[in-house]
Amino acid sequence: WRGTEHRLARFYRRVLVMGIEVAVAGSTRTDNARLESINITSTIRAKGSYAEVVFHSSAPATWRPEAGNEIIISTTSDALRHFGGVIERVTETPANRRVFEYACDCKDYTWLFDRRMVATNYATSSGAAILADIVNSYTTGFSTAGIDNLGNIPAQRFDYVYPSEAFNAIAAIQQAHWYIDFNKVVQYFTAITDVAPTTGI
What we know:
Distance between the termini: 39 Å
Strand content: 35-45%
Order of helices and strands: EHEEEEEEEHEEHEEEHEE
Shape: elongated
C-alpha cells in the first residue's frame, strides 16, 4: 500500500464476493448488501479512501443505513478489513412498494479524525512527537503506532485547523505521506524512496 494508489472494484466482484462481510453500526448487514455493488477506491497520499455500497431493506422495511453510521467491509476467511469508515450520504429509492434500496457513499476514518480542531503552539520538536500529541489530544480512538520518526521540525502554530490539515502541513515539511488505515492506526512515513547517486570530483 505504501507509496502506491490503486482501485479496488471489479476485484471484489470476481474474487471476494463469496467471502465478504459488511457491518454497519456494529451489526452484520451482509444479507442487506448488494455485494456486486461494492466499489472501493483507496489512495495513499492523504486524500482518503472511499466506498460505494448499495443496501436493500427487508420486506417490510425494518432497517435502513444512516449517515454517520460506521461501516466495515472485510473478508470472512481472515477477518482482514478492506474498508473501514463512515457512511457520509444515503440516497433512498423504492425497489417496490415494500422494499427500498439505499445507495451509500462512504469515507474512511478521516471523517472521524477531523471532528475537533487543533488550536495550539508547538516548540521545535520531532515531527512524530507533535503528530502523536495531535492524535492523542484532538482525536478519539486512533492509534499512533504507525507514525515514523522522521526528525525534528521548526516550531509550529495551528489556529483552529483540522487534524488532517495539521498532518498535511507537517508532512509537507518532512516530505512524508500519511493516511489512516482501516483499523484506525495513523500511518506516517517518508515519501522519499529513491536516493540520487553521488559523484566524486
